[in-house]
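Course assignment 3, question 2. Fill in each field.
Student: A.L.
Task: Predict the tertiary structure for the chain below.
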Amino acid sequence: MASSAAPIRRGFINEVAFAAFCQTANNNVGWPPGELTPEELVRAVSYVRSLPIRRETQGDIAADGGLAPEEIVDIDEQRRRLIWMFLFNKPAGSLLTEPTFPGCGMIDSCKGDLIASDALYEVKAGDRLFRSIDVRQLIVYGALNFIAKRFKIERLGLFNPRIGIGATMSADDLCFEISGKQSSELFSEIAAAFSSGEISR
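Answer field:
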């Protein structure tokens, strides 16, 4: 997906696109969901600007000013691709956006991107392929969820709406590929490394 938006603004645009998608998903909008409205865009921008820590934005300077026409096109296209990936032909209620995982030891509580059925996904909208740090993020969330037993997560996945690539594996297969251990064993070891395993509130 080509974009003429300035690189310094790209992280902010990605966050707004994801926030706009979450609005659509949480409102249980039927198919087709329709175009992004100005009101939805304003709410998405306000939400992203209210976040104490933005996942991809390089400082507040990137969020200053209004949105240029090409930035709105970028946001709408990313939203459309996320809708196609996670909402098209899926049963109502099968998607949970921004699931919260309780902290453990030195790790504070944190939010993932979304759970689709039994798969935890992280959305990475940069102009790059997936990296090992993206997989590590999923593994950490998996470990936190293993301790809390809050969600049923059997698969882990990554999706990039900007370049249109994704990958999903069972948690057991992914953990075995990177460590030679089943997910329960690896998650237990990670939790023990964070602390004694007691969940922080």
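Instructor remarks: Residues 56-62 have pLDDT under 50 and may be disordered. The two ends are 41 Å apart (CA to CA).
Grade: pending
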